[in-house]
Design a protein that fits this description.
The chain is mainly α. The chain has 2 helices and no strands. The longest helix is centred in the middle third of the chain and has 18 residues.
């Protein structure tokens, strides 16, 4: 078996990308629910793979992208 681990960010849901684009720089508090939803989904998907490393996929990181 080849050891693996996630590196970098996980693609964001289209709904989150569109909302960030509409609301500015990604820091608007109206985005919080969408960020939380994206983080929960990412963690659930990692858990489903049996990955030994679980991350939030950098769902909230928008600066430097």
């Amino acid at each position: 078996m080849i050891p693996t681990e996630p590196i970098g960010s996980i693609p964001r849901p289209v709904k989150l990308i569109e909302a960030v684009n509409a609301l500015g720089d990604g820091t608007d508090s109206r985005l919080d629910l969408l960020y939380d939803e994206a983080v929960r989904d990412t963690i659930q998907q990692f858990e489903a793979t049996g990955s030994p490393v679980i991350t939030d996929g950098e769902q909230r990181k928008y600066h430097n992208f």
